[in-house]
Amino acid sequence: MQDFTKILKYQQTMFATGRTKNIALRIYYLRKLDRWINNNNQAIMAALRVDLNKPPFEAQATEIGIVQDELKYAIRHIRRLAKPKIVLSNIKNFLSYGRIYPEPYGVALIISPWNYPFMLAITLLISAIAAGNCAIVKPSEIAPATAILIARMCAEVFHPSHVCVVEGDRNISQALLKLPFNKIFFTGSAEVGREVMEAAAKNLVPVTLELGGKSPCIVDQSANIKLAAKRIIWGKLINAGQTCVAPDYVLVHASIKNELINEMIKVIRKQYGSSPTENRDYPKIINERHFQRLCSLMDGTNIVHGGNRNPKTMQVEPTIIDGANLNSSIMKEEIFGPILLVLTYSIPEDVVKIIRSRPSPLALYLFTTLKAAQKYYFKHLSFGGGCVNDTVVHLSVPGLPFGGVGQSGMGSCHGKAGFDTFTHYRSVLHKSQYIDIPLRYPPYSSLALKILKLL
């Protein structure tokens, strides 16, 4: 096993020189990274095809394209984001002003998952570099082809004292977490997230967690059923449902349930054909363990479409399940696969009751044409982020902070939020030397107290 202490000290030494704080140098490396991605587009797609059987369009739309958008945002806005901000003072500190100095934390550890192995590692690296940090990236060993590519990319773009990639299994992650980093960003399951927080607490390292959960999709009577069906299925089946913000279950008004299910079945057949498990452009499940988990979740359920699986290609057919016991295992754990539950409701209060009975989800989707419905659900429900009349695409907007709440995560990323995540905002009050009010110093008089109360 590598001596990670030496790697950390190497980067700490680099950070101490102050070079990574140089704005021009940050932009130089971000542009260099952008060129590498443009020049190696096909290699990235090939790695994603090996790991997850992602077709080129999905690879570009959900991985490479999002990274490129993040790079554009960072390069365009970095000078503004890194510029100190002046803050007006108050009368108690007459003849003074405040300044907020954005300062990088130091050396950041980024632990990324396997489901979007390129995007979820590199968007965070972009934010860390834009903020002026050094970084150690630990890609997922479950997506080995992409992990190898990320290691090659970082070696060709950055000096190892600036950015280093560490490959390996869970033991490597645990060894890294024992070190006194200045910031840790983890993306993955809530179970592992707890372990990350516990390890980080020993060194008092600030942590950002992007987790997951069961993201609901609400469809009311006013919704455009055909459009809702198309966008729900699209969001659900990207990456074969292995998306932390994929719709996990649909809560549809009882009066339109059958119509919605029929439309979703039509969409599945149109998009993936009659035999999706033989479709070359249909992504696969990442490994045998997750494949078997999904198969067991379908046991004993009311499957109205799909349900077939191909162990050779590790593909699970897009599956719609009509109804489920709210206490069943399929309603307790995140599905993280191409299986969609459809539940019904009669009144909005039922929707709120069902969603509130579970931990706050990472995403929530609402299909409606009623402003009153939006106001009602947004007022009564807690969730990380989401869309009205669409699914998943809020992730692709750099200006929208992305993050969870409660068990779906803490902190946020993307755009300015990503810069903020890897930045300490240092506040400094600049005070004039020309006036020094004597009332602040002891011995205190009754007059001084009266004046203080008036300020």
Question: Could you provide a short overview of the structure?
Answer:
This protein has helices spanning 4-16, 23-39, 41-52, 56-82, 119-130, 144-157, 170-177, 190-201, 225-237, 257-272, 288-298, 329-332, 348-356, 371-380, 415-421, 446-454, and strands at residues 85-88, 96-104, 107-111, 134-138, 163-165, 183-187, 207-210, 216-219, 249-253, 303-305, 309-310, 315-316, 319-322, 339-345, 363-367, 385-388, 409-410, 423-431.
Q: Any overview of this molecule?
A:
The protein has 455 residues and is an alpha/beta fold. The protein has two domains: 4-211 and 405-428, Aldehyde Dehydrogenase, Chain A, domain 1; 216-396, 3-Layer(aba) Sandwich (Aldehyde Dehydrogenase, Chain A, domain 2). It has a seven-stranded mixed sheet with strand order 10-13-14-9-8-15-16. Strands 5-4-3-6-7-17 form a six-stranded mixed sheet, with helices on both faces. The model has no long low-confidence stretch (mean pLDDT 95). The protein has helices at residues 4-16, 23-39, 41-52, 56-82, 119-130, 144-157, 170-177, 190-201, 225-237, 257-272, 288-298, 329-332, 348-356, 371-380, 415-421, 446-454; strands at residues 85-88, 96-104, 107-111, 134-138, 163-165, 183-187, 207-210, 216-219, 249-253, 303-305, 309-310, 315-316, 319-322, 339-345, 363-367, 385-388, 409-410, 423-431. Helix 3 (41-52) packs antiparallel against helix 6 (144-157), helix 4 runs parallel beside helix 5 (119-130) and helix 5 crosses helix 15. The chain has 16 helices and 18 strands. The radius of gyration is 25 Å and the shape is globular.
